[in-house]
Amino acid sequence: MFYRPSDGHGLPHNPFNAIVTPRPIGWISSTGPDGDNLAPYSFFNAVAYVPPQVVFSSTGAKDSLANIRATGEFAVNIAGFDMLHQMNATSEGFPPGIDEFAAAGVEKADCTTIKCPRVAHAPATLECKLTQIIDLLGRNNFLILGEVTGIHLRDDCVIDGRFDVTHVRPLARLGYRDYAVIDRVFELSRPGEA
To answer: What does DSSP assign to residue 84?
Structure first.
């Protein structure tokens, strides 16, 4: 099968959503004039080490985007499998002014380098200062980039000096209504590495 996205795919569901997988989920917290906001974004990733930087995209002019524009900061909370239902609850299209933390029963904690709240029991949180918002092709598609200025790690997730993803069991988006959980890893050396 071949299709041009501009012509449509003719399938019951868009296959593009399931091709680039698994995608990590950035559970973005922010605050703004209408209060605190918490929403999951599956177009999310880390993009640089020094300084550490992350990116996520918003397909729509959502509350997270408005808050980040207003304050210049946001936090990326990593959702483990134990937070699946709370993370999903925050994906509801709440009207502005509704605190998704409260609506989904998610406990807040203070950040250190920024003023917005973070998910208290998240395995990890990346505190971020906005570096750029880029308008993408299409209606209301935005790319948000941030520099990581602080990192919270839950103590039980650091095992033998490493952030242990098999303990965290992070969630990943697969497309359609499909998700995955990371609970098995393996090592692979690059050619020429000892």
So the answer is: H
CATH number of 23-181: 2.30.110.10
Six-digit token string for 123: 């395995």
pTM comes to 0.94
Q: How far apart are the first and last CA of the chain?
A: 42
The two tokens of residue 38 are: 């918490």
> What is the distance between the alpha carbons of residues 176 and 85, in angstroms, rounded to a whole number?
17
pLDDT truncated to tens, each residue of the chain (194 aa)? 999 999 999 999 999 989 999 999 999 999 999 999 999 999 999 999 999 999 999 998 889 999 999 999 999 999 999 999 999 999 999 998 899 999 999 999 999 999 999 999 999 999 999 999 999 999 999 999 999 999 999 999 999 999 999 999 999 999 999 999 999 999 999 999 87
Alpha-carbon gap, residue 10 to 165, rounded angstroms:
38
CA angle 123, 125, 114 (to 5 degrees): 150
> Taking the domains of the chain in order of start, what are their residue ranges?
23-181
Between CA 39 and CA 41 the distance in angstroms is 7
User: In 3-state terms, what secondary structure has residue 87?
Assistant: helix
